[in-house]
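It would be a great kindness if you could assist me with a short task in structural biology. Thank you for your consideration; the sequence and its tokens are set out here.
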Amino acid sequence: MDNNVQDNGGFLWGLLGFCIPVVGLILFLIWKDQKPKTAKAAGIGALVSVIIYVVAYILIIALGVGGAMMLGM
């Protein structure tokens, strides 16, 4: 491991991973050995984004089915 590499983690890497989950995953896979804190921030951002997307999708489907049932469709 190179001692000159700064590994501060960083909110912005997490935000980037959240906004663009594929980039967060790629950065996590690339940096997991060289910059573990930064990789973790990007990976967590991507993971949170995907979880929120899945939960929102499930809620939308559930509300859509429930709304259709209430209207008698």
In short: The helical segments are 11-19, 21-31, 36-70. Residues 36-70 form the longest helix (35 residues). The chain has three helices and no strands. The mean pLDDT is 89.
